[in-house]
Design a protein that fits this description.
Elements lengths: L11 E4 L6 E2 L5 E8 L7 E7 L3 E2 L3 E2 L4 E11 L4 E3 L2 E5 L4 E2 L2 E2 L3 E7 L10 E4 L6 E2 L5 E9 L2 E8 L3 E2 L3 E3 L3 E12 L2 E4 L2 E5 L3 E3 L2 E2 L3 E7 L4
The chain binds fe (ii) ion (2 copies).
Length: about 220
Amino acid sequence: MSSYNMDRSHRVVINTAHTRWQPSPAKGVWRKPLEREAAESGQVTSIVRYDANSAFVAHSHPNGEEIYVLSGQFEDEKAVYPAGSYLRKPAGSTHSPKSPEGCVLWVKLNMFQLNDNDFININSHEQSWSAGLVDGLSVKPLHSFGLKNTALVQWQAGTKFSRHVHPGGEEIYVVEGVFEDEHGSYPAGSWIRNPAYSQHSPFSTQGCIILVKTGHMV
Ligand SMILES: [Fe+2]
Ligand SMILES: [Fe+2]
């Protein structure tokens, strides 16, 4: 597959619970593409599944790799990363990933800003929630650089957030529960890419946890 969903002026919503796993170059490693520049290079966002005892060839990340471990346990020569781990491997880093027990990951490749060179390995399950901007919202910050922010946000059932603009765009992956706004309802596994200067009034009737990135689409 060549370029897919790369016009970031367009809103995209994909419920990955309803899309098919596609084979990768490595046996036992599967992907659900969300956006990609080219078949095996450039900017890519995808959900990746490692079957138990699978591995991916040693590779480098010319412009960085960002990972959130959704389930199972991911591993490379540096460490073992349980579910809830948020990882950043900066430009030029290399590794040989594998997963003895199997795992599912959210992965973004080759989108690091210049000089964002920190290796990050956070186990979000060991972080505590901080109060968010309105009652019922709580936050675990994961990464900030320039105008870009990445965080986990928990919505208690019945939480409503004010209408707001995303000057640098917004990308959301629904980890648990159901996230909503006036445009739709997004169950766990949904990926939403809201373009720069889009607006919405989000809420969650039943509660949810979302992984959110803002400021990276300018
Ligand atoms: Fe990698
Ligand atoms: Fe938003």
